[in-house]
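We modelled the chain as a single entity of 417 amino acids. Its sequence is:
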Amino acid sequence: MKKKVDAVIIGAGPAGMAAAVSLRENGIKNILLVDREPVAGGILQQCIHNGFGVHHFKEELTGPEYAERYIEQINKNKIDLWLDSCVIDIENNSKNSKTVVILSKERGISYITAKVVVLAMGCRERNRGNINIPGRRPAGIMTAGTAQKLVNIYGYLPGREVVILGSGDIGLIMARRMTWEGANVKAVIELQSYPGGLNRNIVQCLNDFNIPLYLSHTISNILGNNRIEAVEVSPLDENFEAIKSESFTLKCDTLLLSVGLIPENELSIKIGVKLDPVTRGACVDKNLMTNIPGIFSCGNVLQVHDLVDFVSEEAKNCGASAAKYINGKLEKSEEIPIRKGNLIRYVLPGKIEKGKPALLSLRPINPAENLYLVITTDTGVELFKRKYKNIFPSVMLRINIDIVPDDAEFIEIKFEK
């Protein structure tokens, strides 16, 4: 099957759906939205807790409710949606032509020619193979997201005595969820000296249920034959080496891993999209376009967000930029780089345009208190300054710059006293 469209969007999660709706709102009619799952919505469909939509829809929704809002918009705008369809390749024909190869049971192999491609594949969890925990390989070890799907979608409780490694938000939320379902969550173990998730989840998911959080600890051994029976927990020294003499054992039949998320960028790498070594997402300009003209990226495949509301906002901007590109109206002025200073882990985008406003997303490296975030040009012009009582790596900061001066050669962003 061969078909021509204006835009192909890969991934029908919150980013893909928001980008598709934005493209339609900006006058693009021939849109194809593709997802490998049997339903649209992505990870939202298994996130049955509330807390979504406060910024974007101005009300508190569950994950499925948030997804349904966008599914209704997809149907209302009659956007072509292919489910159970997997993109296996992208070919860069020219500046204004890409071929997306899609495999599905219903249609076989399809070759879709598009003017733009929007990458919105989301992210996946790091698993045991990514972190190399020593010990046996018994049953009962899984990612927190897998456990969430088992409990919330299939109604299956994967274990009764649970330990969670990593204090990412999914792991924290599953600590509460497993407790609600009658499991005994023994502890959450965190490698760093600070939690990896949002503070509200620490309070609502751990403190409210008296679940211990061991900071600067790791699991140094897994015990059990057919099924996991216990884990050995060790404190860490300043070099992140386990202090075996102070180790202790927690009996458990289930170990959930919440040790970080990785953007799903295999397709991006295959076509030659340049990736940022820190975010592991695409390097993009202000318009969220990658180094390959006509290929855009947004959502968790670009950077792992704290809130789905910000995913939707980013994807909306991405769709608007892609629409301008299709219509030949995506004008670019001279770009200048952004330099990272003290305590800055990453900044997106990596370049901004002279003479125009900019929206920056950034994360600090470590927690800190009572610091100013300062943005200046190479000539010393101060573009932004704000005091933060607390900063955390788990909280992404979003900064608006009104106008970037025409005489600037670069801007620097840093935290200072």
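As a brief sanity check on the tokenised model: The chain has a mean pLDDT of 94. Helices lie at 14-25, 63-76, 128-131, 144-152, 169-180, 199-206, 266-271, 308-326.
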